[in-house]
Amino acid sequence: MGSSFGQLFRISTFGESHGGGVGVIVDGCPPRLCLDLAAIQAELDRRKPGQSKITTPRKEADQVEILSGLLDGVTLGTPIAMVVRNKDQRPQDYKEMEVAFRPSHADATYQAKYGIQAPSGGGRASARETIGRVAAGAIAKQLLAQTHGTEILAWVRRIHNLEAVIPTDLPTLEMVEANIVRCPDAAMAVQMIERIEAIGRDGDSCGGVIECVVRRPPVGIGMPVFDKLEADLAKAVMSLPATKGFEIGSGFAGTQLLGSEHNDAFLATGDGSLHTATNNSGGIQGGISNGEPIVIRVAFKPTATIRKEQQTINARGEATTLAAKGRHDPCVLPRAVPMVEAMVALVLADHWLRQRGQCGSAANSGN
Amino acid sequence: MGSSFGQLFRISTFGESHGGGVGVIVDGCPPRLCLDLAAIQAELDRRKPGQSKITTPRKEADQVEILSGLLDGVTLGTPIAMVVRNKDQRPQDYKEMEVAFRPSHADATYQAKYGIQAPSGGGRASARETIGRVAAGAIAKQLLAQTHGTEILAWVRRIHNLEAVIPTDLPTLEMVEANIVRCPDAAMAVQMIERIEAIGRDGDSCGGVIECVVRRPPVGIGMPVFDKLEADLAKAVMSLPATKGFEIGSGFAGTQLLGSEHNDAFLATGDGSLHTATNNSGGIQGGISNGEPIVIRVAFKPTATIRKEQQTINARGEATTLAAKGRHDPCVLPRAVPMVEAMVALVLADHWLRQRGQCGSAANSGN
Amino acid sequence: MGSSFGQLFRISTFGESHGGGVGVIVDGCPPRLCLDLAAIQAELDRRKPGQSKITTPRKEADQVEILSGLLDGVTLGTPIAMVVRNKDQRPQDYKEMEVAFRPSHADATYQAKYGIQAPSGGGRASARETIGRVAAGAIAKQLLAQTHGTEILAWVRRIHNLEAVIPTDLPTLEMVEANIVRCPDAAMAVQMIERIEAIGRDGDSCGGVIECVVRRPPVGIGMPVFDKLEADLAKAVMSLPATKGFEIGSGFAGTQLLGSEHNDAFLATGDGSLHTATNNSGGIQGGISNGEPIVIRVAFKPTATIRKEQQTINARGEATTLAAKGRHDPCVLPRAVPMVEAMVALVLADHWLRQRGQCGSAANSGN
Amino acid sequence: MGSSFGQLFRISTFGESHGGGVGVIVDGCPPRLCLDLAAIQAELDRRKPGQSKITTPRKEADQVEILSGLLDGVTLGTPIAMVVRNKDQRPQDYKEMEVAFRPSHADATYQAKYGIQAPSGGGRASARETIGRVAAGAIAKQLLAQTHGTEILAWVRRIHNLEAVIPTDLPTLEMVEANIVRCPDAAMAVQMIERIEAIGRDGDSCGGVIECVVRRPPVGIGMPVFDKLEADLAKAVMSLPATKGFEIGSGFAGTQLLGSEHNDAFLATGDGSLHTATNNSGGIQGGISNGEPIVIRVAFKPTATIRKEQQTINARGEATTLAAKGRHDPCVLPRAVPMVEAMVALVLADHWLRQRGQCGSAANSGN
């Protein structure tokens, strides 16, 4: 319950932060897809802890093993199971958190829900849970790239109050990966890194905004009513740890425009495809993709676990204080970039298969 | 595909804007619930067109008929089917839209997806589609109120650039329903109404932000990982027509705080329940409700269909212009208030049943 | 919960035997399918009560109204809602059943499950519930016929101990519809009709076996593991009222053969398609269709509601007797023939769309 | 797609016969359940190959590793992942099957469906796929036993034409496990074992019937309409490899009775519970359990892979012959006994949670 995502391209994840391992089953992947296995590991490497001075110093190799579903790197159409073993466990670091609920973390609510919880590390609420998402998303990315030439690219747009305002057609993967904060504005990236380091030294944490663009998405995907493409994208990224907000296209700012300013005029293309003069819609109209780039933004709160002393209660409901001793990210955003891309890829892959299932390859859908 | 929502408390809607009727099946409602049928109709009346001078002048009674699932107003546990007949049809108003795709509406994408579409009125993309949601949500509201004393209340927080900043514990249903724009700040409501009228007279439209609070929600509901409570809330409201953004708790603004500022300190309650000094979390931590009020905000874009002339293309891809002649809302927000409440109610009802299914009535979950 | 069926071609039914009406929503039907609406009504007419001297004398027109999803008889790809109003209500006939649980009917278990039940007629356990299935199945049949030339044909193979052993490639729709018991063996049909009449005169009831063949099914549909095609067929028909058993291909009898006798040898076809010398597999191997006719058989028990006096208890648990006064079928099989066909059609349509979604139109799948 | 089962107690399996391993994720298991881990392994040992002289001589330890979801053997409410590594691989044994489709096996249909397949061993169609089912079913069994005292017991009723007719209230686990064919009739078991050995020596195979009883099931579980308890049981066991038929209660034989003979009279119990004089219903009425033992029977065909030479085609569609060289079971039934129990347990656990979710703990449902 709650650990599966998608209808046709469907993933199911498992694993706590400190158990035997974490992983994912991808069910419904089309057969005969040639997978680049190194590219899957590369996405996990973008996500893993210890990758730079602004992430948690915990070192985990996060080496993925694929147990099923492939024949010489080609998909069989059967479930693809991927596992990453847990290695660097220091449960003693979390000892005091066993007795004190970390403010704004999941300790207290897991206890309220289940009446039991993993003794350390956040259990399923750990960022480690996202390994399965990223590994599965890497397959979805390859599926979309091979069938539609789709590119899914996210980056850090804001850290604390430092914002990089960049046209969404500009960033490349190289620009994003050129610095450890994953902001394609190199000058702003330097400031962001300094800010994260300074806040981390204080034992505090900060948040920000990640932006994501989908170039050359499948056209005509997304369902009317409940499974609108933007609705499933919202759910997908709002299921990531630490998210507090979601926007598509013009977002909250767009609500200050008039209809005549906000509407995206259709331009004649001559070939039957759709093209708009502006893209306030963010590539989706009526819940269905129109072929323009899909543009979303996601708000991430500051990391809940900090070294500064905080007021809280223990499991018996008594007042106490807590100053976390574990090794934590002062800012989750650099590592969250591949998570956002993965969730977006999973939504698009699933909706493309659903569209192909119901409507086949209609000439006018471009699929 | 795409017209069902929820896992245990599950609704399926049907109906185009101008067909025989619209409606909904509610499957999984607990048995032996005494329904207030007048309250269901009252919610539909809050949603219906023609209710005030700032909504579309189209008059539709939207009288609901319940076909099944009840015995003398008491639920049987079997599917509850509700139908509203279509009445006030003027397809000729939409004639020109048959040949020209309305900018930022669903005409073009439906055509790209299906290769066919309803000749008029927007089909499933019409706001009329939300009737089923509101009727089903009215049942979910009663279920939550009777079992948990839960209150779900939404209101208009901003219209265009006119914002009413109100503490979320203040508004009452009476305050919200005291004016036609559904803003609990009476003075600001007057300005908002004037603004909508002025923009409407210009043949233009505007958007804004709706805020929603859930008081006394079930504790411990929501699932780790993909079906986090905020993720399902995000999907629920982002599936409403014209939405562009979603926030929970501190939202986008909260990303500018430090962790030490943002974390919600737990206070000793003496009775084992959870209570926090602040509520930046918006009532949800780790995807699970902690008992504090759930607070969300939803961005609605300006209505796409406007009387002002716009650049567009026709179904053959040729450039043309369009000035809509139909009777349209210059601003969807007043009528969207009950829609937001309905979607929130559906998510909570479903997650409460899912929690009861998996975990029963654990002493410490307050359920 | 429990009133929906299918993943991509998904139906949701509603309605009690004696409420305002019964119906179904079909979601996920491909767009641009030209529907023969008269054929939908014709299937309902094959199912309706009062059609002959061996069915219940209750007269119900069962006239279907389609509320949505069509444009001039062509599917829009959006939900198709169909409703049949209830007409011929005589709740007084069921009065005594309110106080006495009918043996082997659903009265007692509904009460145990829900703590409440419809006062008369069996509620959702009524055969009237199958109207939605038959209407939806009629659409699935047309989809399969138009895309694959698929024919789905069921008939009565046995009534009580009167069995018509007919090669499954022989019966035609005309032969089945040539008599009121729907047995393609005309001579045996006469005996069956006499038997049903005799048993009915005694206030008793009888059961039997329905056989169903699918000619020219889509090839390569069905999923490994849980959603094997025969597993979903089994669920589909075992969800019909009064069913007690299911067989595919050689069935129970085949378990008495040796492997060398039971295996279906593959024959060289020259065109890459599959063809087997025998069809003990019943058209499905490893859960996936091989293109041979799919052959199943379904056991129906004798109707539970009989006029003969029976031992039972009332709702207070006290011993009592019951002799039903309502108008009931002495044998459900003649009317169950279109129900079986409908359920088979729904499974095949759904699995074909699922196959197209995951695998597209692979050259070697024949789709 | 197709590798998940259940709604609330939901399992997802993965793994081919000869890849890195096979396994399962169990999602939705209630928290705070104390698991007997040795009992899980014991069920796998009942299923594993090489356990006796009448099963395949392939030796596989089938040692299960639990990767997540537990704390000191107590369930956390989060996904429980279990993996069994593949060990005894001899792909060369399957070489010739790469070029020749095994008659009545899944080779040809997998190729038709996916256009690719695992090179050896049957891929997902291997009996090895059932490891995940049995491991997950062992947890479901413990859940039902601890909450309801439910016992689920299956046994071999018939091998080839040797049938043990035993009252279903008689067999115990000890009687079933007392011999290697798992037939509680000791005398008949001796004959069955001799028959299997003789047929195996001939390079041939045989099938039979497994019977399963559920004692003290939860009352009131199962859903009206599509998710009737018997429908989900039918799907569950018909998804096992080699199954050809399913019966509940009186089954096919019951269709030869009159209603007055077949109906199960209710007896006054004095305590509000249900009890019937006979149990032709097999413990389920109207799709809902009535508390009587649930009784089903499942037909298993003779193993498809035999050493005798058979007519077939190769992947190019040319006629050829095949005499399998691998090590195969001459009869799958002894090892299928725990598989049937597992599938039944999974259905009941899922439906009990669904019932608790929708209806809570109604006094009169006995839950």
From TrEMBL, chains A, B, C, D:
Its cofactor is FMNH2. SUPFAM superfamilies: Chorismate synthase, AroC. GO terms for biological process: amino acid biosynthetic process; aromatic amino acid family biosynthetic process; chorismate biosynthetic process. Its EC number is 4.2.3.5. Reduced FMN (FMNH(2)). NADP(+) binds at R47, K53. It catalyses: 5-O-(1-carboxyvinyl)-3-phosphoshikimate = chorismate + phosphate. Belongs to the chorismate synthase family. This is Chorismate synthase. It comes from Synechococcus lacustris str. Tous.
